[in-house]
């Protein structure tokens, strides 16, 4: 599935990790140096964020938005559908796969900011997103009660996308969610996934989840300049 045709501009982030095991060349950009806002990068990604994929085999075609990249890689490089579902021969499973990818991208991903990165604790915002995250994880717990993978009977893009967005699920005790916990272990045990979670640096899911607030807050300030408006 890997191909020298692809270059991924990424970093150690939940948007980037699901993509890393599919590409031969992963280039890390420095957020501290604001490389994602440089002129050359904005030409390939007008949104000025990581990740971006370049497909050299198609005239250096650029794809941005992590879930769009994931689907692009599957469409062109997972033609045997080892880790994705086929829209033509498996339309219902393909649709379910999309549903869970959107659930993770639009639902889980935005819950992180006020709980972990904001420079001050805003009680309403923290409660709102923490409750929402707990609700979303409960949806996963229920979904996984009698199945190994989120969609169908095999590991797919839906699993990796959702797992990596979950790393932001701070302060949640894994024991409260045994089905989710076992599913995380199943995903991490897959050699390809394990490899991908090591690029550009090893993602330790458990450790990331338990990162103290001071650390994630400092990260938000350093990388994204999150601060109060004066
Ligand atoms: N919806 C986008 C979000 C991408 C995103 O937020 N990327 C972060 C990665 S840490 C980033 O580039 N942040 C830098 C910035 O905000 O300038 C996606 O999924 O690709």
UniProtKB/TrEMBL annotation:
Q: Which InterPro entries match?
A: Glutathione-S-Trfase_C-like, Glutathione-S-Trfase_C_sf, Glutathione_S-Trfase, Glutathione_S-Trfase_N, GST_C, Thioredoxin-like_sf
Q: Which PROSITE patterns match?
A: GST_CTER, GST_NTER
Q: Which residues form a coiled coil?
A: none
Q: Name one Pfam family in it.
A: GST_C
Superkingdom field:
Eukaryota
Concerning SUPFAM superfamilies, the annotation shows: GST C-terminal domain-like, Thioredoxin-like
Q: Which family does it belong to?
A: Belongs to the GST superfamily.
User: Under which name does UniProt file this protein?
Assistant: Glutathione S-transferase
Q: From what organism does this protein derive?
A: Clathrus columnatus
Biological classification of the source: Eukaryota, Fungi, Dikarya, Basidiomycota, Agaricomycotina
């Amino acid at each position: 599935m890997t191909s020298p045709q692809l270059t991924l501009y990424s970093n150690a982030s939940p948007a980037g990790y699901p993509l890393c095991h599919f590409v031969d060349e992963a280039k890390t950009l420095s957020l501290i140096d604001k490389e994602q806002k440089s002129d050359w990068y904005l030409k390939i990604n007008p949104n000025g964020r990581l990740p971006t994929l370049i497909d050299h085999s198609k005239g250096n075609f650029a794809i941005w938005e992590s879930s769009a990249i994931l689907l692009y890689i599957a469409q062109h490089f997972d033609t045997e559908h080892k880790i994705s579902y086929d829209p033509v021969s498996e339309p219902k499973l393909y649709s379910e796969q999309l549903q869970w990818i959107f659930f993770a991208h639009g639902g889980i991903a935005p819950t992180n900011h006020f709980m972990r990165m904001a420079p001050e604790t805003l009680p309403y915002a923290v409660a709102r997103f923490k409750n929402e995250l707990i609700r979303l994880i409960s949806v996963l717990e229920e979904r996984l009660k009698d199945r190994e993978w989120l969609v169908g009977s095999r590991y797919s893009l839906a699993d990796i996308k959702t797992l990596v967005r979950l790393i932001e699920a701070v302060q949640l005790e894994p024991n409260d969610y045994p089905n989710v916990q076992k599913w995380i272990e199943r995903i991490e045990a897959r050699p390809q996934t394990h490899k991908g979670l090591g690029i550009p640096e090893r993602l330790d899911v458990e450790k990331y989840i338990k990162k103290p607030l001071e650390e994630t807050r400092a990260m938000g300030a350093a990388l994204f300049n999150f601060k109060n408006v004066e």
